[in-house]
Structures are given as structure tokens and as C-alpha cells.
Amino acid sequence: MYKSFVMIDDFYPNPDEVRRLALQDDYPDVQGQITFPGRNSKRKFVVEGLDRFMSQLLGEPVVAADRPGAFHGQFRVTLAGEPSRYKVHADPSYMWWVGLVYLNLPQQCQGGTVFYRHKALDSDRVPLHQEDLTRVGVGSVAELLQRDGNDLSCWEQIMNVPMRYNRAVLYRPWLWHTATDGFGARPEGARLIHLLAFRRPEAGEVGQPAARPPGP
Q1: CB 84, CB 92: distance < 8 Å
Q2: How confident is the model over 165-210, as pLDDT tens digits?
Q3: What torsion do the CA atoms of 37, 42, 46, 51 make, to the nearest 10 degrees?
Q4: Does the predicted TM-score (pTM) go above 0.85?
Q5: How many whole angstroms separate alpha carbon 28 and alpha carbon 47?
Q6: For residues 79 and 179, what is the distance between their CA atoms, to the nearest angstrom?
Q7: What's the Cα-to-Cα distance from 207 to each of 48, 72, 95, 215, rounded to whole Å?
Q8: Is the terminal CB of the chain with fewer CB neighbours within 10 Å at N or C?
């Protein structure tokens, strides 16, 4: 038995300050084809004690998945019409939990995060066994997404988590999911989130749980 999904409202004690930091950052253009819609911030913001708080919240030890190129701590802004490679996808396997905090003001909130079941696989997650992929006519998860990732007729929507200001959503990276469409013409009116990613720790990496995540 294990948790697959956690949602926490009123996550940051000072979300207006976190949103202000997000809007002050730079969002470089992404070169080439990307797997997510929008642009990530140039800098990362990670509050002190977050690993310990998440370990307590999730009921298992975790630490930041902050390897080079990882998105933990970055903000992401998605304007209307920004494309991505796949509509439905899963996240990299080196992560153990992934998540986001919605930073749109209440009057801006629309859409959210959607989770799916792949119809042919009859599964809401990346297959554990190669024979499952072979059974549906592909050799890898990448090949499956190339074929079906943008074809919503291959998927059944099983959960839609609505956007809400300062709502944190945490889920396993192997679950099939997608962000709803971006909106707005400028960052202050666009879809805005704070990205989180955690991995299982090596010995000695996790301290005592914190009461709640401190603010910036």
C-alpha cells in the first residue's frame, strides 16, 4: 500500500510573495521541441526545510530531485497557444514524487491538471513490464507517446484537479497526466506554477520533519 496522489490547499503561508518572486524572474525561450508547454524560469526557488516537510507529509523520506537539468524549484509560465511535444505524458523515472503549486490569482484560475488511463494498456501508469508495451504494438514508452501522446481518443480521463491559488498537487511521476491549456498574453496573466520534484534519498540525506514549509 502506498500513496499516489496528495493535494494541499493554502500551501505557502505567503503565496503573494512567492508569486511576486515568480513574476520577477526571467523566462528564456526554449530551443527546439519540448515535452511541456511554456517556459521555465532562469532561477530556482526552494524554501529551506521543504525536504523535511515533504517527508512528513508523504510518509516516506524524500529529498529534492535537483540533478542538473531537473526542474525542481523552477517556476513555469504558459501563455495561450504555447505548444508541447505530447499532450499526455509521464515524468522522468529518476523522480519518486513530482508536483506543482498553482500561483494564479483566484480570478485567473482555469483548468488544472488532468490524469488519464491508456485504453489499450488499461492502465493509468507507465507499464512495469516490456510485454505490456509489446502487447499494444510498441517497443518503449517513448514510442508509445510518439504514437498516442497527442491522440486523446487513446485515453480516458479519470481525474481533473482544478487550479486554485496556492494549491499544491503532488503525484507519482509514472502516472499519465497533462496540464490544461495555457492562457494569457503576458506572464502576469498567464498560467503560472511552481515546480516540485523529489527522489528517494541516499543514507543520511533526510533530517527531522518540519512543521510546515517556511516562506521565502
Answers
A1: no
A2: 999 999 999 999 999 999 999 999 999 999 999 999 876 665 444 4
A3: 60
A4: yes
A5: 23
A6: 12
A7: 12, 19, 19, 19
A8: N
Whether 31 has a pLDDT exceeding 80, the answer reads no
Q: Which three cell numbers stand for residue 29?
A: 525561450
Confidence of residue 212 (pLDDT cuts 50, 70, 90): very low
CATH superfamily of 5-27+35-198: q2cbj1_9rhob like domain (2.60.120.620)
DSSP E strand stretches across the chain: 5-8, 39-44, 63-64, 74-78, 97-102, 112-118, 155-162, 168-171, 177-179, 191-199
For residue 80, the model assigns a pLDDT of 95
CA distance 75 to 77: 7
**CA 81 vs CA 38, 84, 89, 136, 147: distances in Å:** 9, 10, 18, 32, 22
Domain ranges of the chain: 5-27+35-198
Task: Give the tens place of pLDDT for each residue, 2-23.
Answer: 899 999 999 999 999 999 999 9
Q: Do the strands 177-179 and 39-44 form a parallel or antiparallel pair, or are they unpaired?
A: unpaired
